Every structure is written in C-alpha cells, then in structure tokens.
Fold this sequence. Notes:
Blueprint: H1 4-8, E1 16-20, H2 25-36, E2 40-45, H3 48-60, E3 64-69, H4 75-89, E4 94-97, H5 112-140, E5 143-148, H6 159-178, E6 184-191, H7 210-221, E7 226-229, H8 234-242, H9 244-254
Parallel strand pairs: 1-2, 1-4, 2-3, 4-5, 5-6, 6-7
Amino acid sequence: MLRSDQRLNGSLxxxxxxxxxxxxxxxxxxxxxxxxxxxxxxxAARRIAELDAQARAIREAxxxxxxxxxxxxxxxxxxxxxxxxxxxxxxxxxLVNNAGASxxxxxxxxxPDEILALAGTNLLGxxxxxxxxxPGMLERxxxxxxTVGSLSGRVAMEPLYSATKYGLRGFSLALRRQLAGSGVxxxxxxxxxxxxxxxxxxxxxMQKPEVVSTTIADLIRHPRxxxxxxxxxxxxxxxxxxxxxxxxxxxxxxxxxPVLEEKEExxx
Length: 268
C-alpha cells in the first residue's frame, strides 16, 4: 500500500500498468511518465523494434518496463496480453487504452474490411482489453482505467474516425457509472491535435505528447470524468453541443479536401 504522502505527490510506486499504442506518440510518452513515477509498465503495440526501444529507455532511466507486442484489433492478442501481464507481475492495476488509428478516406470509397479493422483498433480493442483486466481490479477493489479518446469524440469531424471516438466516449462514461463505488476509477482523456505521427498532415502549432501523458498519469491518483487537452478546446466542444449549425459552418470552411481521398493509419 502507498503512504498518504506518496499518493499526494503523484507517486505510482507499486502500480502495474498496461499502456497500449506505446511504441510512439502519446502512448510512448505515457509509458515513460508512468515509469518515471515508479509504476511497472507493460508496453503494448504492433511495432516490435520501436516497442522494445521504448521499454529499454524506461529501464535505462531506472524504471521497470517490459514490451509485449500486441495487435489490439485481434481478440486473441488482447487475451494473451492480459495473461502475460498477469504472469509477469501478478496483476494489472492501471490500464491506459491508447492504441488507435486515424482515417481520412471518404466513406463511399472505404473497403468494408478496413472499416472493420479501424473499429477493432479504435473501439473494440479497448472494450475487450478493459473486459480482460476488470475482474482482477474488481476483486481487489483497486484499479484505474483511462481511455484516450479524441476531440473528434465530441465534435463530428470524420464519419468513421469520429464514430469510433464517440463510441469510446460513450463506453468510458457509461462504464464509469457502472463501476461507481467499486474502487475502480474510469477516466477519459480527449486530446485535440497533438504533435505525433498521426497529425503530420496538420499545418498548425501543436503541443507535444507530454501534455497528454502528464494528464493521464495524474488521473490515476485523481480520477475525473473527462479531460479535454489542451483545455482551450473545451470551447470547440461547447460550440458543437450548443450551436451545431455554427459548428457545421466552421467545419466546412476549414476542413481539408485533398486528404479526404487518402487513408492514413496511425503508428501504434
């Protein structure tokens, strides 16, 4: 058990955490931040070399980390990840659902199998992985589930991508209500554009992934329903909710057209 002073200063010593999409971007930054705060981190992603490099960097900085190659869109991989994490550390205390892929192709030209793959990566994988770790958390009356959604889960920007992120938001908020009083917290982080490989097409100033990873780490000790990062983008979410017609106009004026014909997958 942690001392009260450890809880107050944000220490995560003794916690076992799984972070998906941990080979780069927000996931890698989150794994490093959790390791820096004393958690033992299981890094999961598809790209083995990059994943190993991130885990090695955490260990070289004095943290505890292991890499477990995983495709969250594959239910067998998801089940195996939970089994291997439990075998390595005996339990899972924290789950960060971060793996995701972006999408820019028009719906009419999107192949059905790729639509299913996107839903598997962005939505179903998080659901199945949460289901996998939840029984142990409930048994111990201790745990934190933090899901990385998107501002696109509050503001309709692209049909397929937004559908998966709206789904993640609904899943997280409803699960929070279902688990109230259980000792397992549920929080949602909804980033706007952050400077990662997913946003390399965006021509605008963007904050670094660390602004999100710090938020995620803080939510383990101090859970919140939802945090939009950066905070200034709460205004955009409010515009969508209160004045959807104005949001429609703003969307049509600023959104890209050449990119809509292309599909680009995030590196996770």
